[in-house]
UniProtKB/TrEMBL annotation:
Signal sequence annotation: 1-24
Domain Ig-like residue range list: 144-256, 533-689
Record keywords, A-Z: Signal
Name the UniProt record assigns to this protein: DUF4165 domain-containing protein
Length: 793
C-alpha cells in the first residue's frame, strides 16, 4: 500500500495573538413567533421580529477559526441574556440559508418585553479579549395591528355590488380604513377568503397598503381566488406589521363568480293580430316603431333563489320573465342593463334586433360619423368628446344625421335644438358653454326626431349617443417625498380621481424625475395605494453621471402639472466600487500568486460613495470546497479575512478561487475573482510514507510505530514547553482513497474529528497513523490543527 503525502499544520499561539480589528457577522436567526410560526430571518440594516418573549431563539454568527463569541441584547446600555461560546473549531462549519461558513449557532433567550434593542456579537480571542463586535438594531414587537371590521367598505365600478354581496365582474374597490400599529409599523396586506363556518383560510392574494393613510385596499378580484361559483364567505384583509404579526378584518359576504344565462331576444309584437311572435334575425316587420321583448328563466331571478339572481324583471309568464321595449328601427344606442345584487350584469343593446322593413314602412335615421361637432370662440374644434384643462368657450354645435325624406328635429338636451331640412345632413345650434374651473363630466344626449315644421310628429326618434364633456383645472398634489441613498419616493394625490364607474375620467399618469442636465426618467416602481393616490420610486443611478439639481413633476391627463425641487447639487455616482487584493503593505496580489497565510491577504475597496463588501466566497483547493468567509473591517476601506478551514496547496492544480462582491450606497455593484495557491504560514510537511495495506499499527524492532508524525518542540506564546493534554482536530481530505486511523480515531474522506494529544517531557509529539482500509491501495492526505498550545507548568 502506498500511504503517502501526510501533511499537518500547527496554528501557533503567536499567530493567534496577531492584532485584528475584527468583527463577527450575524448571518440570521430562527425562532418561534407569537403567531406560532417557525420563522427564519436574515439580517438587514435593522430588524423587526416577534419571538415568544423569554423563549430561546437561535442566532447564527460567522467568524474565523480559533475565536470565541459573546452574544447579548443591549437595552439602554444594559446587557441582557448574555451567552458565551467555546472556541470556533473546524467542526463548527454551518450551513444557513444557502451559505456555508465557520461560526456558531447560539441559543439566546429573547427579552421579556417589547421594545427597541441592539443585538450584539463580540468577537473574542481564545483568552477572552474582545477584538471586535457587530451589532444590529432590533425592534421586538409582539402586538398585531388593530382596526375595526366595521370600517370595511365596498365600492362598485359600474353597475352594482355591496359589501354584503359582490363579484369579480364589477369589482371597484374594497377598502379598510383606520388601521393602527404602535410597534414596528405596518408592512403589507393580503386580501383573504375564509370558510364561512370554520373560518379556515381558503385563499389569499396581495392587496395594497397605503402607509400615509393607514388604509388597505383591493382594486381587482381575480375569480380564481374563489373556490366555488357562489357562496357565503368571511372575506377581507390580513394586515401585517414589520415584525410579522398580523390580524384579520373580515365581513360576511356573498361572493359569486358564476355567469348567468343572458337575456334572449325572444319576441316582437304583431299589432295586426295583437300577439307576440317569435323573433328571428332579419324578419320582415310591417310597422315601425315596434315593440320587442327579452326573455329570462324565472329560476335565475333573485326572487326564486334568495341570495342571488337577476334583481328585477318586467313581468312573469310561467317559467319565464320578460322585459318589454318599443324601438324605432334601426335604433342606435339605447340599451338596458340586467343586474344582480353582486354586480354581475348584462348590457343589452336594442340595436341587436335586426329587421327587414316591409313595403312602404319608413325607417329611423342612422348615426353618422362625427354626429356632434363643436367649435370654440378660441378657434378650437372637435367631435363627440371634449376634454379641456384650460379656458374654453364653446359657441356652436353642428348636429349631423343621415339624409332623410322627412324633416328632422335635432335636440341636444339642456343646450338647444335645430331643424335638419328634408334632404340635408346637418344643422347648427348656437350655445354658450364655458369651461374655466374645477373638474367635472356632463354628457349631453343628442336625439333626432321625425318632425313637421320643427315639431316632432311622434313617429321616429333616434338617440345618437351623447356630446361628452370633461374638464379638469385642478393639478395633482405632492403629499410626501422620501430620499434615500439610492432612490427617491414621491407620494402623489389626484383629488379628482374616483373609485366608481368614472374612475378613468380624471387620472394622473405621468411622473418624472427631472435632472438639470436635461434628462428625465420615468418611475422604476409605480404603486396605486388608494383612490387617486400614487407612490412612485425612482432609482438615482439611472440619472446621468455628475452633479445636478433634481426636481419632480406629475401631470394629469388634462395637462395640469405639479412640480417640486428635491435635491440641489446632487452627485450621482454611476461607477462601481474598485476591488483590489493586496498585501498588508499595500502591494498588489496578482492572479495566480501564492498566499502564505490568509493574514497576508487584504481586500481594498475604493469608491466615490460609501461602499461595503457583501460576500466573500473561497472555493477550490485540493478538497474542491466552497465556504463563505466573514471579513474584518480594518478601516480606510481595507478588510482582512477570518480563518476558514483550508488545506494547503501542495500541487499546482490545488488553487483556490476567491470571489468578492461589493456594492456602494448608489447601488453600483462590482465583483472581483482571483485565484491563488495557499500555504499556511506555519505549515509543516511530512514526507511520503509507504506502509502495508493492513488496518493495524506496525512497529519496528524498537517498538516504535513505522508510520507516524513527529513534531519538533512545541511552545506556548510565552515560550513555555507544551505539556498536558492538547486539543487538536484532524481532517481527512475528501479525495482520500482510504480511511485513516489516528490515535484510535477512524476518519472517512472529508471527515473532521477532535483528538487529544500528550506532548513528551521535551514538548514533542509523536502521532501514530495507519490505514483503516485493509487490503485497499491508495493515497490519503490529512491535516492536523492544534488551535492553542497550552502548558501545565
Amino acid at each position: 500500500m502506498n500511504f503517502s503525502q501526510h501533511r499537518y499544520k500547527l496554528l501557533a499561539a503567536a499567530l493567534l495573538a496577531l492584532p485584528h480589528f475584527a468583527f463577527a457577522e450575524i448571518e440570521g436567526m430562527t425562532f418561534t413567533s407569537v403567531m406560532q410560526e417557525q420563522t427564519t430571518l436574515t439580517p438587514a440594516s435593522a430588524m423587526a421580529i416577534n419571538p415568544v418573549l423569554e423563549h430561546s431563539m437561535n442566532v447564527y454568527v460567522s467568524a474565523g477559526l480559533d475565536r470565541k463569541l459573546k452574544l447579548y441584547w443591549l437595552s439602554s446600555g444594559v446587557k441582557l441574556n448574555e451567552v458565551n461560546t467555546g472556541v470556533i473549531g473546524v467542526s463548527d462549519r454551518i450551513t444557513f440559508q444557502g451559505k456555508d461558513f465557520y461560526g456558531k449557532q447560539i441559543s439566546i433567550v429573547a427579552p421579556n418585553s417589547q421594545g427597541n434593542y441592539t443585538l450584539q456579537a463580540d468577537l473574542l480571542t481564545v483568552d477572552g479579549n474582545v477584538i471586535g463586535s457587530w451589532s444590529i438594531p432590533v425592534t421586538i414587537d409582539t402586538q398585531a395591528p388593530t382596526a375595526n371590521s366595521s370600517d370595511l367598505a365596498f365600492n362598485y365600478r359600474s353597475f352594482g355590488g355591496t359589501l354584503a354581496s359582490y363579484s369579480p365582474m364589477d369589482f371597484g374597490q374594497l377598502k379598510l380604513t383606520g388601521i393602527q400599529d404602535t410597534g414596528a409599523g405596518l408592512k403589507n396586506v393580503l386580501y383573504i377568503v375564509k370558510d364561512d363556518v370554520s373560518l379556515s383560510l381558503i385563499n389569499s392574494i396581495n392587496a395594497q397598503l397605503d402607509l400615509d393613510t393607514s388604509t388597505a385596499s383591493l382594486s381587482s378580484l381575480p375569480s380564481e381566488v374563489l373556490p366555488s361559483d357562489r357562496g357565503w364567505y368571511q372575506a377581507g384583509f390580513r394586515v401585517f406589521d414589520a415584525a410579522g404579526n398580523y390580524s384579520d378584518f373580515t365581513a360576511r359576504s356573498f361572493i359569486e363568480k358564476a355567469s348567468y344565462p343572458l337575456p334572449v331576444r325572444s319576441d316582437i309584437y304583431d299589432a295586426s293580430s295583437a300577439t307576440w311572435k317569435p323573433y328571428t334575425s332579419w324578419m320582415t316587420i310591417y310597422n315601425n316603431p315596434i315593440k320587442v321583448r327579452y326573455r329570462r328563466p324565472y329560476s335565475e331571478t333573485l326572487e326564486a333563489n334568495g341570495d342571488y339572481g337577476w334583481s328585477s324583471y318586467g313581468y312573469r309568464e310561467g317559467d319565464f320573465v320578460y322585459n318589454e321595449f318599443t324601438v324605432s328601427y334601426p335604433t342606435v344606442n339605447p340599451y338596458w342593463v340586467a343586474l344582480t345584487k353582486s354586480g354581475i350584469h348584462s348590457v343589452n343593446y336594442l340595436s341587436d334586433f335586426k329587421f327587414t322593413l316591409g313595403p312602404g314602412v319608413d325607417r329611423s335615421p342612422t348615426k353618422q360619423p362625427d354626429t356632434v361637432q363643436w367649435f370654440s370662440e378660441e378657434g378650437g374644434s372637435g367631435g363627440e368628446r371634449i376634454s379641456v384643462g384650460k379656458y374654453t368657450k364653446v359657441v356652436r354645435l353642428r348636429l349631423n344625421s343621415e339624409k332623410m325624406g322627412y324633416e328632422q328635429l335635432a335636440v341636444v338636451s339642456g343646450l338647444g335644438s335645430c331643424v335638419i331640412p328634408i334632404g340635408e345632413t346637418y344643422c347648427d345650434v348656437t350655445i354658450n358653454r364655458v369651461f374655466e374651473s374645477g373638474f367635472g363630466y356632463t354628457p349631453y344626449s343628442y336625439v333626432v326626431y321625425s318632425s313637421v315644421n320643427g315639431v316632432s310628429d311622434g313617429r321616429f326618434s333616434a338617440q345618437f349617443n351623447y356630446w361628452y364633456t370633461y374638464w379638469d383645472f385642478i393639478a395633482p398634489t405632492i403629499e410626501s417625498v422620501n430620499v434615500t441613498d439610492d432612490s427617491i419616493t414621491v407620494n402623489v394625490y389626484d383629488t379628482n380621481t374616483t373609485s366608481d364607474w368614472r374612475s378613468g375620467m380624471w387620472k394622473t399618469e405621468v411622473f418624472r424625475l427631472q435632472s438639470s442636465l436635461g434628462f428625465a426618467i420615468s418611475p422604476d416602481s409605480w404603486v396605486i395605494t388608494g383612490t387617486g393616490r400614487h407612490r412612485v420610486t425612482f432609482k438615482l443611478n439611472r440619472l446621468p453621471s455628475g452633479r445636478q439639481n433634481i426636481s419632480f413633476y406629475a401631470d394629469d391627463t388634462y395637462g395640469n402639472r405639479v412640480t417640486q425641487s428635491i435635491l440641489s447639487n446632487y452627485l450621482n455616482d454611476t461607477t462601481p466600487p474598485v476591488l483590489r487584493l493586496q498585501s498588508p503593505s499595500g502591494a498588489q496580489i496578482t492572479n495566480g500568486s501564492t498566499i502564505n497565510g490568509l493574514e497576508s491577504l487584504r481586500i481594498s475597496i475604493t469608491d466615490d460613495s460609501e461602499a461595503n463588501i457583501n460576500s466573500v466566497v473561497l472555493s477550490g483547493g485540493a478538497a474542491k470546497d466552497s465556504v463563505y468567509v466573514s471579513t474584518n473591517n480594518l478601516g480606510d476601506g481595507i478588510y482582512d479575512l477570518n480563518y476558514p478551514r483550508l488545506f494547503p496547496s501542495l500541487e499546482a492544480n490545488e488553487t483556490y478561487t476567491i470571489n468578492i462582491t461589493a456594492q456602494d450606497t448608489a447601488g453600483n455593484a462590482s465583483t472581483l475573482t482571483s485565484t491563488f495557491l495557499y500555504l499556511p504560514a506555519n505549515l509543516l510537511q511530512v514526507g511520503q510514507m509507504t506502509t502495508l495495506a493492513v488496518n493495524k499499527q506496525l512497529q519496528n524492532t524498537q517498538n516504535d510505530p513505522i508510520t507516524s508524525i513527529k513534531t519538533g518542540v512545541l511552545r506556548t506564546a510565552e515560550g513555555q514547553l507544551a505539556s498536558g493534554a492538547q486539543t487538536a482536530f484532524i481532517t481527512l481530505r475528501s479525495d482520500a482513497k482510504i480511511n485513516v486511523n489516528i490515535l484510535g480515531s477512524v476518519l472517512q474522506p472529508g471527515e473532521t474529528k477532535q483528538i487529544t494529544i500528550i506532548p513528551s517531557i521535551t514538548g514533542e509529539v509523536v502521532i501514530p497513523v495507519y490505514s483503516a482500509s485493509p487490503g485497499v491501495k491508495g493515497q490519503a492526505s490529512f491535516m492536523i490543527d492544534i488551535p492553542q498550545i497550552t502548558s501545565t507548568n
